[in-house]
Amino acid sequence: MVFAARKACRHPRSLKAPAQVARHLHPSGVVLPPRVLKNSPPPRRNLTARAKVAGKGGIVTHHKKAAVILAALAAGAVPAYSMHIMEGFLPPAWAAIWALPSIALFLFGASRIAAIMRENPKAKLLLAMAGAFCFVLSALKIPSVTGSCSHPTGVGLGAILFGPLPMVVLGAIVLVFQALLLAHGGFTTLGANVFSMAIVGPFVSYGVYKGLKILKVKTPVAVFLAAALGDLLTYVATSLQLAAAYPDPSGGFGASFIKFGSIFALTQIPLAISEGLLTVLAFNFIADKAADELAGLPALEKVGSR
User: pTM here?
Assistant: First the structure.
């Protein structure tokens, strides 16, 4: 009889309804036939080691135990999607190709951050805030293409404030922390993820912002377009990376790129619009509350021209 109860726990579909199980359950936790249960004496209090009291004398049955175990297994069975490209998804050759430019620009970015700290020590807090903004937004992920996901990037704000090179460093740090703490992305694909999110995104955002300011476009509009386009071009770069690693058997690189890009677009276009609006709000807040810290930043010399 005990074997039957254990078998029922291993195969949840074979469990009976709670009322049916309760009719065959002895208070000690052993499943018995109805005739044995009817004639069996009540157990002594000191023999209920396996029984768990719930509320006023209620007992957690095997059915409830099985339900708890199944719920825990179901919670752990949720598929994990990574930031941009998941661990081990790229072939080693492509992982190395994307890692080389990422390492080089990371070193240039570290040098640029050191120069900013010497020129404007008050900018430390803004740098930390730009990194935190990137971390929070890029952690909001939506499953997309197999082996990847869609999410805001948050790199546009830092690129507008400090230029693209510092954001290479901040973006790489964000990706490392998320790989360690949130299981987003991985270390074999870190170079590819840094290239798409921390290099392509910031350079596009900075270029769009500076170009629109030269054209005398109002600052909120320039910030919105810079952040939104930086987000979108990040996923264009990710689509290129995936298409290069996994070309379509019949259509080659072009067909694979269209396939990846079209799937990303379903989720990334609304996310890019949302990120643009959030970046405008954050930028306006910083411009109003941190004027002293912004004074020495070349990107914001004409921040008053709204």
Answer: 0.69
